[in-house]
Amino acid sequence: MGFVLDGPSIPTSEVKDGEITRVIPKTRQQYSEADRKKIEKGYKANKLLLCGIGAEEFNRISACESAKDIWDCLRTAHEGTEQVKESKIDMLTSQYENFQMKEGKNYS
After folding, report:
1. What is the dihedral of CA 59, 61, 64, 68, to 10 degrees?
2. Residue 17 in 3-state DSSP?
3. Per-domain residue ranges for the chain?
């Protein structure tokens, strides 16, 4: 699940240029076996998400490139943004606080 939540794994290497160290993406020839496995897991996560959804959902995420992008898009579509979630919580809290038993009703 880490590949879905954390985003794609891009193998990098550190290159020192005097006192400055830069992080640059590795070329495919520089990939280690561990790098290849991480990339493969990312592709598998992508494929599982794509194969596990219907046509309507596929149209929603067809432009996404990584499993994380797909996951974020689906999550927003089904749960809403943080603002929408907070709004729902406020509304439900308000409904709960205003809940009253009707006169003459026995709920036991």
Report:
1. -170
2. strand
3. 2-97
Q: How far apart are CA 93 and CA 28, in angstroms?
A: 53
Helix (H, G, I), strand (E, B) or coil at 18: coil
Query: What's the pTM?
Result: 0.53
Residue 69 burial class via C-beta count within 10 angstroms: exposed 0-12, middle 13-18, buried 19 and up: middle
Length of the chain (residues): 108
Q: Which residue do the tokens 């809290």 mark? A: 93
CA distance 11 to 27: 8
CB contact at 8 A, 77 and 18: no
pLDDT (tens digit per residue) in 81-100: 788 888 888 899 888 888 87
